[in-house]
Automatic annotation (TrEMBL):
Pfam families found in the cross-reference section: LANC_like (PF05147)
Signal peptide (UniProt feature, chain positions): none
Lineage of producing organism: Bacteria, Bacillati, Actinomycetota, Actinomycetes, Micromonosporales
Protein name: Lanthionine synthetase C family protein
UniProt xrefs under InterPro entries: LanC, LANC-like
Amino acid sequence: MTAPTVDPGERDRAAAACERLSVALAEPARPVTGDDARGRRWHGQSLYRGAAGTAVLHGVRAQTGDDPPARVRTWLTEATREDVSAASTAGLWFGAPAVGFAVATAAPGLCPATLQQLDTAVARLIGARLDAAEARIVAGRRPPLAEFDLVRGLTGLGAYLLHRTHSDSRPDRQPSRPDHGVDGDLARRVVAYLVQLTEPLPRAVDEFGADVPGWWSGAVPSGETAHRYPGGHIDLGIAHGISGPLAFLALAMRRGLTVPGQAEAIDRVCRFLDHWRQNSPAGAWWPERIGRNELHHGRPRQTGPARPSWCYGTPGIARACQLAAVVLGDTARQQAAERALADCLDDPGQLRNVLDARLCHGWAGIAATAWHAAHDAATDRIAGYLPRLLSKLTALAEQIPAPSQPAREGLIDGDAGIALTLQSMITTTASVSWPTCLLLA
């Protein structure tokens, strides 16, 4: 499918908004000291809200000739100002994986020694995480979300390896730049772990046994009261839940990274999501979470679609299902996923709940998801919404405070993500490797 041609006037308007945000993010905020220094260190190494994420914007724009190269060097220096964390709390969005992702995306070939050091640190981190997961499985314990999710867990770390070792070879995409010095066997270990995650937990020590999926977590969701989720829950979102592993397994298969049982694992998760897909006059939707009682009764507590977004809600889950259907060659499931996303984009009742412009929860995430889904879609329906999404995102970007005021740093939850989404939608030569951190492509 070919995306519709962008109106030249709308393209110029979006380009101006993107340039304005880039200028506002030309320099990091002044370094802080004292009690705020620890927070500054966290922000420096964060894709979510920090220097590493902002470097990705300037790196992509430098590669298309829209930003001076000095800007990306400035932000990468800021990201590595403090010792880069490879502790157990590091993940794709923070620490060595985040900084490594930023360096590889924003400045490919610029600092190979630094990138090799980061790759080595990330490989050690992944090895330790896989060993811990194996021990947890042998002990029959349920996984915490942080073991396998995109933000902190092995799905995100797998996405790092995918980004570093396997390019996107589709003819309509500019390939990423793989570095085959990264251990490909480690990537296969991550895929094999996620395949095992989709299977019932052997020798479970709790009362659920094989009655709940292997990705059932005993954790209580953040901000939720314990009584709503006795014994744990399942998260369906792409950021923290099972749609993240699904999208990763599909992207890995698409790029030739496969292990035995991978197709069956993808189908297993798809059948689970098929079961929990709900129908409404406005289209299909999925609950954000499923608790024990909901699993027992086979229906969600949630009575209607929540805020549509990349991280939760229909857009991210539908994209994961679409990717899975494409690699499995499942036409009916692909059509269902694309119909769910298109119906969501056509529903003002859902869209009015989107309150900001950013990637994680806002319009940039919806636009980026639709942009990539449209390129894989069997029909032009999703593509038909792209001009409207571009116009909406441009208008919101124009409302962000003037460049004389400090811009919000970061890719996932900052102004850099808004600018980079606009850049990707109007520049056909823009790098397509950065959406790997969202499992969109």
